[in-house]
Design brief:
alpha+beta; Beta-Lactamase; 2 domains; five-stranded antiparallel sheet; five-stranded mixed sheet; 12 strands; 39% helix; 23% strand; elongated; Diguanylate_Cyclase; PAS-like_dom_sf; Rev_trsase/Diguanyl_cyclase
Length: 317
């Protein structure tokens, strides 16, 4: 197969072998020993004009073929082609464009350096130097996934899978700022299980953990994707409901209380029933932080406790 590299008319001091070797032959030796793909293609027709030995070993013969046929085995120009980024509006070359890409033909990751250069016949062509970075990228992606998993774990209650206290404050703060900015309703529900210590003392902590898991699923199944439901610790839960009026929050909470009263938790042949007290508040003028809402919701919650538990109370100011 012909190499396809034309005479480049390099200066005598280009750093190539001086005796018995032409500049073009020396340049060919350099390019063919690079551990990276180097190719040149026509801007208009996409015809491959040159490919070094690394590329030919990997993708085969280029003669009479276009870059998207050889490198992607596709039926037309690639949707991610960067040709439009390589030339300025006046037709002069832009600085090199460096990007990372996963080739769908071999599934390898490459760092690509694309540039418009002047070919030996005077026309501007596309030069790409693509270095295989698959090993580095795999490590990078594994580290990224591990970081995401660690971050998710830091925001998740290990026992119930709900958001934990940290997540409640982090995401709840975002909902609070959004509600204040757009003057939209926001309600908070605080929930505390009644006599939960007796469940642990009577049936054991395994039974208490199972009760918490089932109650968490009940709560999660009743809220929207936009809502936040979290276990703040122990037997205390909180819900933050954006675009929800006080009346809507009361209706939802009373339904949750009914479902809790109907819930029978089976554990090692024993039936465990649950009950909870609720406190509800809404965003009012002057609220600056989630704590402002939580203080009022807590007051309403303890009113429910004082009135005999297993009920819902509200506090609006």
């Amino acid at each position: 197969m012909k190499s396809g590299i034309p005479s480049l008319n390099l200066p005598a001091d280009a750093g190539l072998p001086a005796s018995g070797t032409t500049p073009a032959a020396g340049l060919q030796a350099v390019l063919d020993n690079l551990d990276a793909l180097v190719y040149v293609s026509d801007f208009q027709t996409h015809e491959l004009l040159y490919m070094n030995a690394y590329g030919r070993r990997t993708w085969g013969n280029i003669e009479g073929r276009k870059c998207w046929q050889v490198l992607q085995d596709s039926d037309g120009p690639c949707s991610f082609c960067t040709n439009h980024l390589l030339l300025a509006e006046d037709g002069t070359p832009n600085p090199p464009h460096v990007w990372e890409f996963q080739n769908q033909l071999d599934n390898h990751w490459y760092q690509c350096r694309d540039q418009a250069i002047r070919w030996t016949d005077g026309r501007l062509v596309r030069l790409e130097i693509a270095t295989d970075i698959t090993r580095r990228k795999q490590v990078e992606l594994e580290l990224q996934e591990a970081h995401q998993q660690a971050q998710a774990a830091a925001l998740e209650d290990e026992l119930t899978g709900l958001h934990n206290r940290r997540a409640f404050y982090e995401f709840g703060g975002q909902l609070l700022r959004h509600a204040k900015r757009h003057a939209s309703p926001l309600t908070m529900v605080m929930m505390d299980l009644d006599y939960f210590k007796q469940v642990n003392d009577t049936y054991g902590h395994d039974a208490g953990d199972e009760a918490l898991r089932q109650i968490a699923r009940l709560l999660q199944n009743r809220v929207r994707e936009s809502d936040i439901v979290a276990r703040l610790g122990g037997e205390e839960f909180a819900l933050l409901l954006p675009d929800t009026t006080m009346g809507e929050a009361i209706e939802l909470t009373e339904r949750m209380l009914e479902m809790l009263n109907e819930l029978v938790i089976q554990h090692k042949g024993r039936s465990i029933r649950a009950s909870a007290s609720f406190g509800i508040t809404r965003l009012i003028v002057g609220d600056q932080t989630l704590e402002d809402l939580m203080h009022r919701a807590d007051r309403a919650l303890y009113q429910s406790k004082d009135q005999g538990r297993g009920r819902v109370n509200t506090c609006s100011d």
